[in-house]
Amino acid sequence: MLLMAKPIQQLYCFSFSPNHNSLFSKISTTTNSPTQIRCCFASSVNSAPPVLKKRNRYRKMYPGESTGITEEMRFVAMKLRNTKAQDRGEGEGGDSDTWQPSMEGFISYLVDSKLVFDTVERIVDESENVSYAYFRKTGLERSEGLSKDLEGFKEQGVVIPNPSSPGLSYAEYLEELGERSAPLFLSHFYNIYFSHISGGQVIAKQVSKSLLEGKELEFYKWEGEVTELLKGVRENLNMLSEHWSRDEKNRCLKETTKSFRHMGQIVRLIIL
Fold first, then answer.
1. Position 35 confidence tier, pLDDT thresholds 50, 70, 90
2. Dihedral-angle region of residue 10 (phi above 0 means left; psi in -120 to 50 means alpha; beta otherwise)
3. What DSSP character marks residue 163?
4. Contact at 8 Å (CB) between 7 and 37?
5. Residue 66 DSSP class
6. Residue-wise pLDDT tens digits, 192-241
């Protein structure tokens, strides 16, 4: 028996689209060949493999970074303070009862402090760097009060010495930073006032009790609420630091340690 294939009356065309797995379309046509089948492809099957997206990696944030550079510096200062307390075998609050100031040492401390505050305030007032304009007339300035205090001691017959090595070396370093880098200088600027407001109150209380018969110096007086004055400086510095690179901020954190070391050397003059 001879079997004949039935003539194929319709031709099917297969096409592939980049946006579909396959597209099957039926095209009506007539053919005389019983076995003729034609396949059509709209695009190449061997398409390029999909591109895998690179996974984003996020760095770990620094302590206080979400708040601002001043909070980052505060964490550095706290760590430095706690490390020193542990080295001395003290608790977190220290042991102020064993801290005995001398009048001669305290006067030297005031003299060196005045040199440092004179330097930072003059740089901010006279510099053409626009970054410093945010920190003029903040209400935190200490030079005028220190001048009154030293003049008062002089009238009492106390010998006022020249600035000593700790004050001179720090003032020289501040001059250099003020010309070279606004972020680094402002790190010192903020930490000088911050340390005076936070630690200065402890010094004032101890000195007043031991040497001044309860008298309060102008160095420790402010017109207005000092925490609000410092808050204004903090907000301006945080705002300005938003334009700094992470590398600049990291260097500011290193300068925070230097600032507290310099100020620590000046404070130690009190007990020499």
1. very low
2. beta
3. P
4. no
5. T
6. 999 999 888 888 888 888 999 889 999 999 999 999 999 999 999 999 99
Give the Cβ contact number of residue 115 at 10 Å: 21
- Name, in order, each residue with C-beta under 8 angstroms of 218's C-beta and a sequence gap of 6 or more: 144, 145, 146, 148, 149
Residue 193 token pair? 């006032």
- Token pair 């206080």 in the structure block, residue: 64
* DSSP states along 213-252: TTPPPGGG--SS-HHHHHHHHHHHHHHHHTTS-HHHHHHH
User: Judging by DSSP bridges, how do beta strands 23-28 and 10-15 pair with one another?
Assistant: antiparallel
What letter would DSSP give residue 39?
-
CA–CA distance, 103 with 270 (Å, rounded to integer): 8
Q: Radius of gyration of the chain from Cα atoms?
A: 37
| pTM for the full predicted model | 0.75
Give residue 94's pLDDT band: very low, low, confident or very high (50, 70, 90). very low
User: DSSP strand E in 2-131: where?
Assistant: 10-15, 23-28
d(CA 9, CA 67): 77
Q: Is 26 helix (H, G, I), strand (E, B) or coil?
A: strand
Measured distance CA(46)–CA(51) in Å, rounded: 15
Confidence check: pLDDT of 93 > 70 = no
Closest CA to 135 of 76, 191, 217: 191
Q: What is the Cα–Cα distance from 118 to 113, expressed in whole angstroms? A: 8
As separate numbers, helices (DSSP H) first and strands (DSSP E) second, the chain gives 7, 2
Q: Between helices 103-126 and 143-155, what is the axis angle to 10°?
A: 150
Give the number of other CB atoms < 10 A from CB of residue 265: 16
Query: Cα 236 from chain centroid?
Result: 12
